[in-house]
Write a structure and sequence with these properties.
By secondary structure, this protein is α/β, with parallel strands linked by helices. The chain has seven helices and five strands, in the order H-E-H-E-H-H-E-H-E-H-E-H. Helix 1 packs parallel to helix 5.
Length: 167
C-alpha cells in the first residue's frame, strides 16, 4: 500500500499515525512526497486543476483535509457544507491523490510533521513568504511551491450563486 498507487478511495484515507508510517516507507524508497491542504468543501474545477498541478510536482500527493471544526474556525458558521468524512472521500476518489488525512486546527502543522514533505504546495492566492507553515516545512528539509491560482473558481462563489438562484 505504501507505493503511492492505492486506487481504493476509502483505503486512501488514513489517520495521522498510519500516515506517518506510510510516508516514512515512501521516503526510504526515495519518493518525492508532495502535500497540500484545504477544506475542499464543494469540489470544483479549480480544486481539480490545483491538485493535478500539485501531483505533477512529485511521486506521491498527500492531501490534508480540514476537520469540520477547523473549517468553522476559518470560514465561519454555516460551513462546511459537507462533512469532513464526505469531503475526504471525495478528494480521495481523485486519481491524482494518493493519500488523504483529516486534521484539526487552523494550520496543518501536525499533518506536515507526520508527512515530512519534500514539497508543500499552496494556490496562488497565498504568498510563500507569509505562509505560516513555511518554517516547519523548511525545518523538515522541504520547500514551498505556489501554483497558479485558478481565478473565478471558489466554494464561496458557488454558495453565493446558489443563494441567488443563478447559474
Amino acid at each position: 500500500m505504501a507505493s503511492g498507487k492505492n486506487s481504493n478511495s476509502k483505503g486512501k484515507i488514513v489517520g495521522m499515525k498510519k500516515l506517518s508510517q506510510i510516508c516514512a516507507t515512501l521516503h526510504s524508497r526515495g519518493k518525492t512526497i508532495v502535500t497540500t491542504n484545504g477544506a475542499f468543501d464543494i469540489l470544483h474545477i479549480g480544486h481539480i486543476r490545483y491538485l493535478e498541478k500539485a501531483k505533477a510536482l512529485g511521486d506521491v500527493l498527500v492531501v490534508g483535509v480540514n476537520s469540520d471544526s477547523s473549517v468553522r474556525l476559518l470560514k465561519g458558521t454555516g460551513r462546511p457544507i459537507n462533512g469532513q468524512n464526505e469531503r475526504a472521500l471525495i478528494v480521495a476518489a481523485l486519481g491524482c491523490v494518493d493519500y488523504v488525512s483529516i486534521f484539526n486546527g487552523k494550520l496543518p502543522l501536525e499533518f506536515i510533521s507526520k508527512v515530512k514533505p519534500s514539497l508543500h504546495v499552496k494556490g496562488g492566492d497565498y504568498n510563500s513568504g507569509k505562509l505560516p507553515e513555511k518554517a516547519l516545512v523548511e525545518s523538515l528539509g522541504g520547500s514551498i511551491k505556489i501554483v497558479k491560482f485558478e481565478r473565478g473558481y471558489s466554494t464561496t462563489n458557488i454558495i453565493e450563486k446558489i443563494k441567488k438562484g443563478k447559474r
